[in-house]
Amino acid sequence: MASRRYSIVIADRTSGVIRRFTLPLGPTVTTTVVALALPILIGLGARWSARAALDDLTTTNARLTIENENYREATGQLSSQISALQAAVDEIGATAAVDPAASRAMEQLPAVVRSRAMGGGVADVVLGTALGPGDAALAVMRDVLGAIEHRLDAVRTGVERRRSLADATPSIWPVAGWLTSSFGNRRDPFTGGSDFHPGLDISANHGDQVLSPATGTVSMAGWNGSYGNMVVIDHGYGIITKFGHLSRIGVMNGQQVNRGDVIGFVGSTGRSTSSHLHYEIWVNGKLTNPMRLLASR
């Protein structure tokens, strides 16, 4: 069955010319529908494209928000780590201060004693990682700060050990007085013969305070033959001090003492000719001349 056809007649009134156009129904309707639907389809496509772009932007924004939070958290952690390192540096600076007299006395100790106290050297931390962008840069910064923190811990340990040795080094005069007998060979005050004097005799008034020259633990407090009333202090690191001829003892066995604490009082007990303090220093089981460690009066 033949399809319907429509004719369009165009007449020119001036010339009387008539033009006739015959159009089939199906193609005409299709063309018309396409012409009308095309703008609608273009609009829908543009809308779908815009929605897809908006969805992409929303996804990107959410990802950037998460990354921003992560970076903010990471930088916050780095800031806290840097503040902690600054506090550690300040603490080490304050702890590192050692009394000059104690420092000079400590340098006179045998190398083996200083080495034992320091516990060996501290290895340097070598970093060979290059900085990179983004997360890699933050990771490297954390590694660098971690390495610095590790080094500061090692330095802090060394400083604390040095401070501990300085506190344990007998560096002050145990009593205010004048030196009547030095360390070494001398004439025995009782027999007049040759004698080796193992310490210092410091003459002072009867009852004057005798001070601990360093931090330590009282290992003996009592009578000891020719020494009379005697106090022995173990300062650690192989350092021992002895105080003889005391009129009265002011500490007990096992008592902890600090530099400057009163441990007894000057007297003339035991094998003594007058009121004075007999003072000895032993390092690693060997007698040491106390004058090497004592600060100038």
What does this structure look like?
By secondary structure, the chain is α+β, with helices and mostly antiparallel strands. It has a domain at 178-292: Glucose Permease (Domain IIA), CATH 2.70.70.10. Helix content is 41%, strand content 26%. The chain has helices spanning 25-95, 100-107, 111-118, 134-168; strands at 5-11, 18-24, 178-181, 184-187, 194-197, 200-203, 209-211, 216-223, 229-236, 239-249, 256-257, 262-266, 276-283, 286-288. Strands 3, 6, 7, 8, 9, 10, 11, 12, 13 and 14 form a 10-stranded antiparallel sheet that branches. α1 packs parallel to α4. The longest helix has 71 residues, at 25-95. The radius of gyration is 48 Å and the shape is rod-shaped. The N and C termini lie far apart (137 Å). Mean pLDDT is 79; it is low at 121-132.
Short description:
With about 300 residues, this protein is an alpha+beta fold. It is built from four helices and 14 strands.
CATH class category label of the domain at 178-292: Mainly Beta
Q: Provide the CATH topology of the domain at 178-292.
A: Glucose Permease (Domain IIA)
Which ranges are low-confidence, i.e. pLDDT below 50, for 5 or more consecutive residues? 121-132
Label the structural class.
Answer: alpha+beta
Instruction: Please state the second-level CATH architecture of the domain at 178-292.
Output: Distorted Sandwich
Distance between the termini: 137 Å
N-to-C order of helices and strands: EEHHHHEEEEEEEEEEEE
- Strand-residue proportion: 25-35%
Overall pLDDT level:
79
Shape: rod-shaped
How many β-strand stretches?
Answer: 14
CATH homology group of the domain at 178-292: Glucose Permease (Domain IIA)
How many helical stretches?
A: 4
> What's the gyration radius in Å?
48 Å
* Helical residues, percent: 40-55%
Main β-sheet description = 10 strands, antiparallel
